[in-house]
Structure to design on (237 residues):
């Protein structure tokens, strides 16, 4: 597989074209940002940890029948993925109250949400990824009603699989965001799943094991990511 031109450079990943029109290479960088890029740092080993973590999670989801963009790892920091026509909508599931939900609704952090909530956000950094509803998605043509139904179905299925997986590792899957795209007309899970895009707490202590350690200046960010990976059995060596 020949790596060619940089197609897109995000906050923590770069996307490259290949000699296959249907495949891209994702490069996970050590860049770490928060608050719409106002706080940026380089964290050693982060690219490697997130690349391997994402590969492990995507393989678990594929085994559960969930179609994903992931093909295979290429190196410590790179993986090969299907080229998707991305839908600019983030699907968010919350199993426990945290983050923006606490600020918006004034509920107590850590409150169990039964059933879990499902929310939509427009993926637009310039606008701050605003909260949207299903009507907005269809009216503005970001996805069809049928595509959105499929996205919600897959998101909730991911939640079932990963809640159990993390629970067995002594972790609470507090919330997470997913992105989807189209591959030859099929809705497929895209982007990544890593501690950058979810909240994970230790079941016994409720210690935060995710990017909130960076956002809140708690330190030990990569050490927490590596501990989560170790508990799950993700090979990092």
């Amino acid at each position: 597989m020949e790596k060619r031109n940089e197609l897109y450079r995000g906050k923590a990943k770069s996307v490259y074209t290949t000699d296959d029109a249907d495949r891209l290479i994702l490069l996970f960088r050590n860049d770490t940002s928060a608050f719409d890029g106002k706080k940026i740092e380089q964290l050693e080993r982060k690219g490697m940890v997130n690349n391997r973590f994402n590969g492990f999670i995507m393989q678990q989801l594929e085994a559960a029948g969930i179609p994903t963009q992931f093909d295979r790892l290429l190196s410590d920091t790179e993986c090969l993925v299907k080229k998707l026509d991305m839908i600019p909508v983030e699907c968010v599931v919350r199993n426990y109250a945290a983050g923006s939900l606490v600020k918006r609704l004034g509920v107590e952090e850590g409150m169990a949400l039964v059933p879990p909530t499902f929310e939509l956000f427009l993926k637009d950094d310039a606008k701050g990824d605003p909260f949207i509803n299903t009507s907005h998605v269809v009216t503005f043509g970001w996805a069809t009603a049928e595509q959105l139904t499929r996205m919600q179905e897959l998101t909730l299925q991911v939640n079932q699989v990963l809640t159990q997986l993390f629970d067995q590792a002594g972790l609470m899957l507090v919330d997470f965001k997913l992105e989807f795209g189209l591959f030859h007309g099929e809705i497929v899970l895209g982007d990544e799943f890593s501690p950058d895009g979810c909240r994970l707490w230790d079941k016994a202590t409720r210690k935060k094991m995710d990017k909130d350690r960076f956002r809140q200046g708690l330190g030990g960010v990569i050490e927490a990511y590596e501990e989560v990976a170790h508990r799950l059995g993700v090979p990092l060596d």
